[in-house]
Amino acid sequence: TGIWQGLDDIRQAEGDVTMYRLSDGTRLLRFEENFLSSRAPDMHVVFTRNPDPSDERGIGVDYIDVGTLRGTVGAQSYVIPESVDFSRYPVMALYSVEFDQVLATLTIR
């Protein structure tokens, strides 16, 4: 879990995020019903090593893309690849590929 951090008054996200480990070992990332984010083209959910992807380095070159954001409102789920080691990739970000810009971040707890 964690708390979303927006970058400014326009680039924001809020709502609960939960991670689950299913009985088959699959890790699932779930944005709950109360999820809401700003809109931007080609938004992706990524895990990055940069502790502050809002700075000029952004998500950097060492990140893991778990998929295109399915919507800016409401529940949605993503499979988290086994390659995501949260001690190495502790920050999740909503990232607009087209704008090369982070909209919001969440530090994994």
Care to give the gist of this entry?
This protein is mainly beta and 109 residues long.
SSE map:
Layout: E1 4-6, E2 13-14, E3 17-21, E4 27-31, E5 36-37, E6 43-48, E7 63-68, E8 76-80, E9 91-96, E10 101-107
Antiparallel strand pairs: 1-10, 2-5, 3-4, 4-8, 6-7, 6-9, 9-10
Descriptive account of the structure:
There is one protein chain. The protein is mainly β and 109 residues long. It is built from no helices and ten strands. It has a five-stranded antiparallel β-sheet, with no helix packed on it. It has a three-stranded antiparallel β-sheet with strand order 3-4-8, with no helix packed on it. A two-stranded antiparallel ribbon has the order 2-5.
Instruction: From the alpha carbons, calculate the radius of gyration and give it in angstroms.
Output: 13 Å
Question: Total number of helical segments?
Answer: 0
Q: Kindly estimate the percentage of residues that lie in beta strands according to DSSP.
A: 35-45%
- Span of the ends, CA to CA: 6 Å
Mean pLDDT: 91
Helical content band: under 10%
